[in-house]
Structures are given as structure tokens and as C-alpha cells.
């Protein structure tokens, strides 16, 4: 007799089901990573934009600033004076900016730091 027995067909279907399950898991993990990458890219671009604003359209003064970018992202900045130039004409500030998204245990964030020269604090 030629052909496949019922046992051979069931084993083939079991192997096919396991293979498809693994492939679908890999595919969904790739899509999840793609979404995470898009969030990180957007957060970094927004953080760079906010850093550029501080000292130009936002005051470069010691303290905290914060706001919402849209319904997903929140930003906060801390401006800290580090050193004053001799003669008291300028001050070096450290700016720490954080962009966060997500809720609870799924909260993610990007932190950027820079130094800026601004007017004297005295």
C-alpha cells in the first residue's frame, strides 16, 4: 500500500503547528520592538527640541519646567547653575531633560543632558 498513515499525518500537522507558533511569536516580537523603537525615536527628537528651546523661547533660569507633548509623552527639565564666570557676567547651567511615556510598570523614559551658558544669577 502506498500513501500516508493517519499517524504520519498527525505528526506532520503537529510539526507544522509548532513551527507556525514559533514563527508567529517571532513576528509579533518584531512588531513590538518596532513600536518601541518608534517611541524611543520620537522621545529623543522631542527631548532634543525641548533642550534647544531652553534658553531661547523658554527662560534659562534655575529650577524645574515641565509639560505635555501630546497625549502620550510628558517632559520635565531641571536647570541647575554650575559655575559663574569670573567677573560675574555669565553662568554655566546644566540642563537635564526627561521625556516619559507609558503608565505604571510600562513607563519608559529618555534622559538627555547638556550644558548651556546663560546670564549671571546675581
Main sheet: strands, sense, barrel: 4 strands, antiparallel
State the helicity in percent bands. 25-40%
Number of helices: 1
Strands ordered across the widest β-sheet: 1-2-3-4
Oligomer: single chain
Shape: rod-shaped
Describe what this molecule looks like in 3D:
- The protein is rod-shaped and about 100 Å long.
- It has one domain (6-119).
- Helices cover 39% and strands 34% of the residues.
- 11% of the residues are buried.
- The protein starts with 5 loop residues before the first helix and ends with a strand.
- With 122 residues, it is an alpha+beta fold.
- The chain is built from one helix and four strands; from the N terminus they run αββββ.
- The longest helix is centred in the N-terminal third of the chain and has 48 residues, at 6-53.
Describe the SSE topology.
Elements: H1 6-53, E1 63-68, E2 73-84, E3 90-101, E4 108-119
Antiparallel strand pairs: 1-2, 2-3, 3-4
Key words describing this protein structure:
122 residues; alpha+beta; rod-shaped
Gist of the model:
The protein is of the alpha+beta class. Helix content is about 40%, strand content about 35%. The protein is rod-shaped and about 100 Å long.
Amino acid at each position: 500500500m502506498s500513501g500516508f498513515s493517519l499517524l504520519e499525518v498527525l505528526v506532520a500537522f503537529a510539526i507544522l503547528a509548532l513551527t507556525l507558533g514559533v514563527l508567529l511569536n517571532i513576528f509579533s516580537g518584531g512588531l513590538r520592538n518596532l513600536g518601541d523603537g518608534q517611541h524611543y525615536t520620537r522621545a529623543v527628537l522631542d527631548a532634543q527640541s525641548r533642550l534647544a528651546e531652553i534658553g531661547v523661547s523658554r527662560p534659562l533660569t534655575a529650577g524645574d519646567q515641565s509639560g505635555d507633548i501630546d497625549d502620550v509623552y510628558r517632559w520635565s527639565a531641571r536647570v541647575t547653575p554650575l559655575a559663574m564666570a569670573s567677573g560675574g557676567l555669565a553662568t554655566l547651567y546644566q540642563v537635564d531633560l526627561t521625556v516619559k511615556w507609558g503608565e505604571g510598570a510600562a513607563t519608559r523614559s529618555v534622559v538627555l543632558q547638556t550644558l548651556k551658558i546663560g546670564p549671571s544669577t546675581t
